[in-house]
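Make up an example, fold above all:
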Amino acid sequence: MTTPRTPAGMPPAPPPAWPVIILAVLLAVLVAASFATLPLQWRAFFTLDAISSMGEFLAGFAPPELGLPFLTKTAGAAAETLAMSALGTLLAAAAGLALALPAAGRFGRVLRAPVRALLNVLRSIPELVWASILLIAAGLGPFGGTLALAAHTSGVLGRLFADALENAAPHPEASLRTNGAAPMAAFLYATLPQALPQMLSYTLYRWENNIRAAAILGVVGAGGLGQMLKYHLSLFQMQPAATVIAAMLLLVGLVDAVSFGLRRLLTR
C-alpha cells in the first residue's frame, strides 16, 4: 500500500487582479490630486500664534456650568434629543420595511426599480437639508427634526432591508409554497425570520447615528441639545456650552452602549 506524496512546492501564484490594481492606483492618484489642489496651510496651523489662540479658546470652556437650574434644562434638552432619535428611527424602520418589500421584488419587477430610485433619493439628501425643508412646513422645534431623521433613515434602512430580504435563502419559502402555504404566510414564516436579526441590527446601528444627527439638527432650530449649543456659542457663553457638549458625549456613549448590547443579544 503506497502513501500519497505531498507536493514538493507551493501552488503557483494566482494571476494579478488588474481591475483591483487599477482601481487602487486611481484612488491613490485622486488622493494625491486632492492634497495638491486644496489650499491646506499646515504650517500656519502649527504656528505659536495659532496654538496660543486655540489654548485661550479652549480655556474659556472651563469650568463647565454646573448650576442646578441649568443642569435641569440640559437634561430636558437631552431627553428631547433622545426622543427625536428614537421616534425618527422607529418611523424610519416602519417606512423602510414597507418600501423594502417592493424594492426586493416581492411585488414584481415593475415596482422594484422605481422604489429603489425613491430610496436612493431619500438617503442621498442629508439630514440637515431635510430639516431645512421640513422646518419650513412644520415650524421650529423637534417635530421637523424628527421628520428629517425619519426621511433620511427611511432611505438607508429601506435599501439595507431590501438587500437582507434578497440575500435570504429562497428554499424554505419555496418549500412552504409547494406544500400549499399562502404567499404571505410563507414569507412571514420562512424569509422574514432569516432577515429579521440583521434588520434589527441595522435599525439599532442607525439609532446610534441618529442620536448624533439629532444633536446636530438642533443647530438649524430642531430643538434639543443642538439648539442649546448654538444659542450659547453664538453668545460666546463657553461654560454653558461646555456643559451641553458634555451632555452630548454622555448621551451618545449611553446610546452606543445600549445599542451594542442589544446587537450582541440579537446576533448570538
The mean pLDDT is 83. The chain has one domain: 68-267. DSSP finds eleven helices and no strands in the chain.
